[in-house]
Structures are given as structure tokens and as C-alpha cells.
Amino acid sequence: MSASSPFPHLLQPLDLGFTTLKNRALMGSMHTGLEDGRKNFPRMAAYFAERARGGVGLIVTGGFAPNIEGWAKPFAGTLSTSGAAARHRPVTDAVHAEGGKIALQILHTGRYGYSPFCVAPSRLKSPISPFTPRALGARGVERQIRAFVRCARLAREAGYDGVEVMGSEGYFINQFLVTHTNQRNDEWGGSYANRMRLAVEVVRRIREAVGPDFILIYRISLIDLIPDGSSWPEVVQLARAISAAGATLLNTGIGWHEARVPTIATSVPRGAFTWLSRKLRDALRAEGIHTPVITSNRINTPEVAEEVLSRGDADMVSMARPFLADPEFVSKAAQGRSDEINTCIACNQACLDHAFSNRMSSCLVNPRACFETDLVVRVAPAAQRVAVVGAGPAGLAAATTLAERGHEVHLYDAAPGIGGQFNMAQRIPGKEEFAETLRYFARRIEVTGVKLHLGTRVDVGLLQTMAFDQVILATGVAPRDPRIPGQDHPKVLSYIDVLLHRKPVGQRVAVVGAGGIGFDVAEYLAHGTDLGHPSTTTDLQAWLREWGVTDPDVQRGGVVRGHWPPPVRQVTLLQRKPGKHGAGLGKTTGWIHRAALKMKQVEMLAGVNYERIGDEGLFITFGKDHQDGTVLAVDTIVLCAGQEPMRELEAPLRAAGMKLHLIGGALEAGELDAKRAIDQGTRLAASL
Ligand code: FAD
Ligand code: NAP
Ligand code: SF4
């Protein structure tokens, strides 16, 4: 790679001796749902082929179980027979036809299995599965090792370039490593040499079975983030033994699934854990061990990947979700077009949240992910003149997809900039990544030639004058009026006043409505973002302190008590329904928001009736009988009571006989999010 390459370290080939990877980017393993079900193999082939075409150095599939005991859930993808291996052929052939390389991940979930057949070193139920595992006898352990080996042999038969043995994130092999889950006293438990025997045997015997010219990745847990997790000397001892047993690459994992520290959410600083892969790489190099170390977690741009590699934190970078967001991540970087990359904003909304609720994964910013054969964007048979009213996520997706297909597109927004509500979302501490989506669409508008008209409030007359063939209304939403007596009091603000217009907010605040926006506003005000307090997402040391993450050399598992600074304001978050706040938040991120508000001492009141607002504050009662009346003596009341569709243009446009489509919030405000808005915009545009 020449010195003039935009990303010389990232794009440098990696020589593995028997084969060479064309660059240092690994598409990390992600469970998408494509693994589960025979009918999905053609889709999986298209999905991975598109990523191979985009130039990624090595792909790792989602996890496949080596046997029924290793199932993540009943009938999860399993590779244990030659018949099953044959079904993988179209996948490996499609990737190779695009010049790519692909390894199959062998995932045995142990006590994390959502299945009655799950097994583990000891009979200890995990907090994330309702099933208590069966403790394996010595023969049972032997059977699991043989299943791993058989799976690797079959992967080779299926045409894979290698396998990844999943040894981190608290899965089966990881469960043997620590006393938290391994309380055996036979040759597989007790001393660390015994506890790591399973990991080493699996790698040694796989290498023996597949021969020297097959990529064997072992994913090692660098920091377990659970009590009684591995100590640092144990991590290094394992890495040493795994290298000696025949691993080609050491991929790294951060935190068990049951850990109460966020590890990949959008509020985690970029590259937050590369200091640990650096620590491992340095320790191994000092002993003359040169097994390449792969780093991971919250690396989502080529710039960050390059920085991490140039610092010597790792030999290769694993990115998983960024390849859902943009299959052309590497080729765009290589062509000096990194500003055109559709960046993963780490929201988890369409990938992990779907995977954990048994739905096919996709991507909020790229609805084609895992739907490559279904959502196809083709050149339009005849170009039309189309108006898109509203440049929020729905309108942006529609306008740029239409223009990409060759239509003449005029995109209007009354605001001075694009983005709609994302302009507010990106101001929430921990949601700074949302700005990347606006950067992406701004560039995409230029590249596709959308004609952008900002500061233009559209009316029927304007649309008629321009003689459009079709009109798309993407005008979004307006805040719902909660009709609380006295709400015209100067103490009362809407979330738009606070987040967009930055109106001053007092010391004691009541937030009315505990949906996604109420939570965000509470976080913003308790943190003091409006008062200039920087977000910990851009301050790694502060973030590590808050969540109690420490060096595993100091404390086993690398987790201690967190230290949160006192809140800047006294915030009360209210909802009318009884029960837990934030029940409707994201499956994999809701707990983080709840924990953060708890640490910021936000008071949560449920089952509330809003009686009236006056000089003294907000008067509330509780329950159906309006009991226990009390006044919240607050300086400011912020209304976050949901939203209503904004579509006053619909009726006059229909009356004028215009061909009209509604998308995003304009169509339906209930449970609206950017995932639905972008999906609707893209699908409509692909079909016109
Ligand atoms: P909008 O984003 O509302 O855009 C509509 C646009 O139309 C606006 O720019 C408006 O100016 C324009 N417009 C309206 N009328 C006219 C007219 N007559 N002429 C010209 N222009 C007009 N969603 C998530 O998925 N995840 C999150 O984490 C998340 N966090 C959020 C945090 C906050 C604080 C907020 C406020 C929202 C958040 N959302 C989140 C919601 C998400 O932003 C919305 O679901 C999404 O923006 C809806 O997209 P839309 O295009 O339908 O409408
Ligand atoms: P929301 O999630 O529908 O929440 C509205 C809140 O207002 C609820 O707590 C509701 O609960 C309350 N409410 C409804 N009607 C009311 C009334 N008449 N008077 C008083 N309170 C009332 O809507 P939102 O918070 O405005 O968010 C809009 C959308 O943005 C959401 O659908 C969400 O998907 C998206 N968003 C997502 C995230 C995310 O992290 N994924 C973050 C922000 C926003 P009670 O009726 O119980 O009081
Ligand atoms: Fe990234 Fe969100 Fe897309 Fe998942 S859904 S890949 S987290 S942008």
C-alpha cells in the first residue's frame, strides 16, 4: 500500500503465511437471524457477497452451533452434518466469486442457551435465560469438544476459509474459564490450568483436524466485566496457550452478555476498549509471540480504525454493525470517499434489538441490510419529477433513493437545515453519533443530485406551479397537546423549546411524559448539556469512571463501583400509566437509559394525573381516584407527551388531484422512530 493511501494501516494486507488478507478490516460476527432456517441461505449468500464486493478483508458469519446442546434457541443454525455443510456452499461460493474470504463462527452458548437442552460446566442458571443448564460430566465435555472439531471440519468441507471459535462474551468456553460459572473439581475445573483446558483443547484439536492452511480465529475475552471474571495474568496465559495450540488470529471480546456495563451502545466512546487489545499485543510481543491481535467495539469509521492501528493497539480491526450500515465501507475508504460512508450510529434498534426479539436483523440507516434480495434499488424505467416535502429521515431516504434511480427530485424543508428531529436527537448526551447520519445524507444529496430547497415552507400553490408528477409528504410530526390546565404558564416549555431553541431551564424540573423523548430530555437536563457540560461519550476516562470499568490487572473482571458526578439539576420524570418507566425503550439499550437516569438521581413518578400548573408548580394526584395530591415545586415543566402527524397539506393536495404518498411521521406518529421513517422512505422510493 503506497504512502499516499488515505488509510495506509487499515488498507495494508495481512500475511498469514498460507494466505493473505487484502486489508486489516474484519467483518465481525453478528447474529442476524439469517443463520436460523434453511430457506435463508440464498439471502445469506447475497448479504455476504455484497460485503465481499465492498472489499472487506475477512468476513465472519453469525454463530452456528456445533450441536443441539450449543443452541442459542430451539432450532438455531447448526452445523453438524455433511448435509448441512452442503447448504453453506452457495454462501462460500458467492463470497469467493467476489474475491472475498469468509470464516464460520462456531458458537456454543452453554448456559446462555434459550433452550431446555443447554449445558454448562456447573448447574448455574444465567440471569439472561430462563433455563437452568445441565452440568456436564467428563464424557459430556469430551462430546462438546468433538462437536467443535466436527463443526470446523464441516466448515472446511463447505468451502469456508476458516472458523472462529467463540470464546468470549460469557458463552460456553468462557464459562469454563472463570469460577463465577465453573465450580467443578475435576480436570476441567479448579486451577486456572484446568479451567482453560477446554479452550486450549478445542483449538488444538481443531488445528489437528483441519490442517495448517485453514484460518483459525479464537475470540478471547479481554475484560469480562463481571465479578470473579478473569484476571489479566490469566488472559495473557490463555492467549499464550491458544497461540501455541495453533490459532491464526486472536480476536477479542469485551464483557459478558450479563455484564451491567454498556459495551457497544451509542453512548460508549468510540474505540473505548482498544487499550486492552494493545495491552495483550504488547504482552505477547514481549514474549516473542506474533499472533495478530484483532481489536473491536465501537470502531465505526475508517478514521478511527486507522488511528487505532497506527497507534499499535492491534493488527486488525473488527467492525460488525458498520458493515450492516454500509457494505461498501472499505471500498469507499480506499477510493478516498470516506465522507460517503453510511456510518453505524450504534443505536442497536434494527440489529441487536431485532436479534433479541426473534426478528430478522437489519439496519436503521440501511434497510437493505439482510434484505438485499427483497429491497432492490434499480434505475427507473422513466424519469419523473418528484417533490419530497420534509427533509427529516423519511424524506432524506426517499429523496436520495429516488435520485439514485434517475428521477428529478426536489427536496423541501421549512427549516434552515436537513435532518428534522435528528437535529434534536444529536444534542442528547450519548447520541452524538446521530450527527453522522445527517453528514451522510448531506453528502448523498450532493452525489445523487437532489435539488435541495431549505428555508422553504411548502404550500399547495408551490407544488402546483412546479408541475410535479408525484408528491411525497414527509412532513413529520408536531408535539401532542396534553391539555393540562394552566399549561400556558411561562414555566412551561416543549421539548422543542429546550432542545432546538435552547430556552433557559430552571434548577428544579418536571418532565411530563416518559417516552423516548422524555428520557432523552431528562438525561440532557440532569447532565447539564445546555449549560456546557461535555458528554462522557467524548471523554473516555470519565466514561470508564462512571461505569466502574478498570484495568483487569487491578481487579478481576475489570469492574468496580462506578462514580457518577452529582446531577446538575433536580429532575422528576412523570408518566400517567402505572409501572416501570421506559418499558417501551429499546430491548438492548433501555436498561442503559434507566441506569443512567438512576445514577443522575432522576426521580421517577408513575400513575400520575396532571391536575394543573400554576405559580407554585405542577399539581399532581395519583391513581384512578386522584389521591395523594401534591405540588411539585419546580421552576420549569417540559412537555414530552408524544406526537401527532403533521399533514395539513394532505387534503388540499388530494383535492387538487395530485399523486400523493405519505411516509414517516406524516403517515403515522404512533411508535414512530427513525428506523420506520427511513425504511418507509427507501421502500417507497425503490418502488416508484
Ligand atoms: P421529522 O424528523 O419530524 O421531519 C419532518 C420535516 O418536515 C421537518 O424537518 C420539518 O421542518 C419539515 N416540514 C414539515 N412541514 C413542512 C412544510 N410544509 N414544508 C417544508 N417542510 C416541512 N428515533 C430513533 O429511531 N431513535 C432515537 O434514538 C431517537 N431519538 C430521538 C431523540 C429526540 C430528542 C427526538 C426529538 C427524536 C428522536 N427520535 C429517535 C425520533 C426520530 O427523530 C423521528 O422518528 C424521525 O425524525 C421521524 O422522521 P420524519 O422524517 O418522519 O419526520
Ligand atoms: P412516546 O414514546 O409515545 O411517549 C409519549 C409519552 O407521553 C408517554 O410517556 C405517554 O405516557 C405520555 N403521554 C401521551 N399522551 C399524553 C397526554 N395526553 N398527556 C400527558 N402525557 C401523555 O413519544 P415520544 O417520547 O414523543 O417519542 C416519539 C418517538 O420518538 C417515539 O415513538 C420513539 O420511538 C422515538 N424515540 C426513540 C428513542 C430511542 O431511544 N429509541 C428516543 C427518543 C425518541 P403516559 O400516557 O403513560 O403518560
Ligand atoms: Fe448500527 Fe443502528 Fe444500523 Fe445496528 S441498526 S447497524 S446499531 S446503525
Description:
- It is a single chain.
- This protein has about 700 residues and is α/β, with parallel strands linked by helices.
- The protein folds into 3 domains: about 15-355, TIM Barrel, CATH 3.20.20.70; about 385-480 and about 645-685, Rossmann fold (3-Layer(aba) Sandwich); about 490-535 and about 570-640, 3-Layer(bba) Sandwich (FAD/NAD(P)-binding domain), CATH 3.50.50.60.
- About 30% of the residues lie in helices and about 15% in strands.
- An 8-stranded parallel β-sheet has the order 10-9-8-5-4-3-12-11. Strands 15-14-13-16-27 form a 5-stranded parallel β-sheet.
- The two termini are about 45 Å apart.
- The structure holds flavin-adenine dinucleotide, NADP nicotinamide-adenine-dinucleotide phosphate (NAP) and iron/sulfur cluster (SF4).
- Iron/sulfur cluster binds near residues 325, 347, 351, 363 and 364.
- Iron/sulfur cluster (SF4) binds near residues 321 and 325.
